[in-house]
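Self-study notes.
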Amino acid sequence: MLTLDKVYHASYVLKDAVRKTDIIPAHHIYSDAEIFLKTENLQVTGSFKVRGAYYKMSQLSEEEKARGVVACSAGNHAQGVALAARENGIQSVICLPDTAPISKVEATRSYGAEVCMVNGCYDDAYAKALELRDEKGYTFIHPFDDEQVIAGQGTIALELCNQLPDLDAVIVPVGGGGLISGIAFVLKSLNPNIKVYGVEAAGAASMFSALKKGCVDALPNVSTMADGIAVKRPGDLTYQLCRDYVDEIVTVTDDEISAAILALMEQQKLVAEGAGAASVAAAMFHKLPIAGKKVVCIVSGGNIDVTILSRVIKRGLLMSGRNCQLTIELVDKPGQLLDVSRIIAELGGNVISVHHERANEGSAINGCYLRLELETRDAEQIQQIRSTLRNKGFHLLEQTP
């Protein structure tokens, strides 16, 4: 049974094994609330997951340690288990979905674990880990549906209470539910007035769906860039804890997550992965009633794959109005491009790409298309450019964000 004593014991065990991560102010995330960031992206292994994994493995019997451990993960729990196993002299085998970022796979190997790649998503890796447990006799280290793992994650809440005693609310990324279960249990036990909000990716809203239905069920599939919270089925224990202690769970889109990653990089000089930025996205895009409140967003991890970072930044620029595309139908005559460019320049936009093509079948014989990519300040400036072009008689064919 999960108790506060167990969480305090976890805090004692972890005091020399993990970092007490800082809380930093983030004034530009949402101007109507006092936002702080709990920087678990700067944790050992780059994620909060090491807390639960390390505490769980510290409590294994000598016989269990001798048999070795097996775990499944999208990457962050894998690194936590691998590190904890190495520090405790335990053999570890980690099952990872083949969708896991290469950086997470290689980091897991670097901590000394044997890696087993599995075709599919987290849930497929989970099934393979159970198969190896039964076949080889390993001790299975669950990534979220385990009281000791949850107690380890709950140590974050103890730190929050010391760092920000007058906290009003906390926003937590949700995948399987281990992180929010530990945080919600501790905060509500110590101060029931603190609001605990969860955030899931819209393409993997398993806990959101379970709480709405009133029972745990598996989603048919998941699709999100936030691989750390791409879970088809939440835990039975975490579902019960979320039902009893969490105030609300909302969803954010991949575009909103991308915008949050970009904001953290530009404004806070922090690198966050998709799952880690989900809490910030919920605040940025006003998903929760936090106006006038003192709020902490848990930035749960920073292990983003650098190979997709440029795509994430591109989507974030589009979402935040920093980049846009225009397609304009023109009459093919001299001076048209000059006129369009002049209008954009006068309004402060910067043209970074130009594609000009003759009209196709069904268009006017003397028509052409001008496709532009612009650097812009915000969505308001984009709208100003569009409106001015239309007022000057130009025909915009599409309205891309």
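Second protein, same conventions, sequence then structure:
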Amino acid sequence: MALKFQFNKTALAQLKKELKVRVRALPTLKAKETALRLEVKKAKTELADALKLFQESSDAINKYGKLWEEFPKDILQVKDVQKTYKKIAGVRIPSLGSVEFVLTLDSFFGMSAWTALGVKHLKESAKLAIEIEVAKERLSILEYARKKTTQKVNLYEKVQIPEYNEGILKIKRFMEDQENLEKSAQKILKDKLTQQEAA
């Protein structure tokens, strides 16, 4: 959308004010964009690490193979997941706080000896799976914020600041032309009056 303005001093002052706001905001936006780029990179690394740990945990569980067939179903449930939030470059991102589990089994009496170990492995795997989901959410939020910030930087840098500069230049030229026309008209009128007085 092209910048619309009138050719007068009020419009000139308004354009200068708007330009000043954008020029001042640009370095801050660029710094935010850089910080978000670093956080996106960090979040991708954290997600990859969590996926690797989950795979290792799954491999450890799969070592027991057939033993899982006799493992009680629904023995472990996730009761509560606590997330903590912090702001990075003005963006609120989640981190996994704590995970609370509930055992539906009253006692391990009468169970296989390795059931307690199986529960421990299940807790680790479940916590890692939740961590992966939180890491994906964090990455998604950061990528969206970085994308929006980059768009705003590009809008200011490549569109709005040049448009405001061009608009200010056009208004100044128009006002100079008006002033020159007025001076020329006054000069012509003065010359005519001088000629009439001489005649």
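Instructor comment on the second fold: Residues 115-198 form the longest helix (84 residues).
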